[in-house]
Amino acid sequence: MTTEIETRLTEMGLTLPDAPAPAANYVPYVVSGDLVFVSGQISQGPDGPIRGKLGADFELEQGVEAARACALSLLAQARAACGGDFGRLAQVVKLTAFVNSTPEFTDQPKVVNGASDLLVALLGNKGRHSRSAVSAASLPMGVAVEIEAIFRLA
Question: Locate the Endoribonuclease L-PSP/chorismate mutase-like domain: which residues (predicted)?
């Protein structure tokens, strides 16, 4: 059965990646009661990690696209936590986002809007969430963005 999320992904010309495997000694998500805590997902596209520093190598729009890629990986992890049943996804509760940026770059919230806007477009009110968007001097593998999330299950 196709869910609303999958229909919207198709309409937007997007596909979810396979849930990325952890890169170190941690699990990709933990389910505790009705909450799913998803480990940080790095900006990654079909060709591999999306690397760059906002304010130096990357313009704002490239950062927005990197954040969108993180959101797709977050949803892939949420789908895995739901046993493949997106119908169990009740709410995006919180995003914590890290933007690889220079000290002068101050548009971290605009970068992370790439993820937030995509989640709302795909999930409607279920996609509305609280959020933090902070600068980082560097991120693993030199990626542009890393985002972790908390989801609530029905």
Answer: 6-141
**Count: domains in the chain:** 1
> pLDDT tens, position by position, for the chain (154 residues)?
568 888 999 999 998 998 888 888 999 999 999 999 999 999 999 999 999 999 999 999 999 999 999 999 999 999 999 999 999 999 999 999 999 999 999 999 999 999 999 999 999 999 999 999 999 999 999 999 999 999 999 9
> How far apart are the C-alpha atoms of 36 and 127, rounded to whole Å?
14
Kindly state the tokens that stand for 145.
């963005």
Residue at 20: amino acid letter: P
As given in the structure block, the two tokens for residue 11 are 């309409």
- How many CB atoms are closer than 10 A to CB 127? 20
Give the separation between CA 2 and CA 65, rounded to whole angstroms.
26
Residues 6+ apart with CB under 8 A from 133: 97, 99, 108, 109, 111, 112
Query: How far is residue 128's CA from residue 126's CA, in Å, rounded to a whole number?
Result: 6
What CATH number does residue 53 fall under? 3.30.1330.40
For 93, the domain range is: 27-103+129-136+145-154
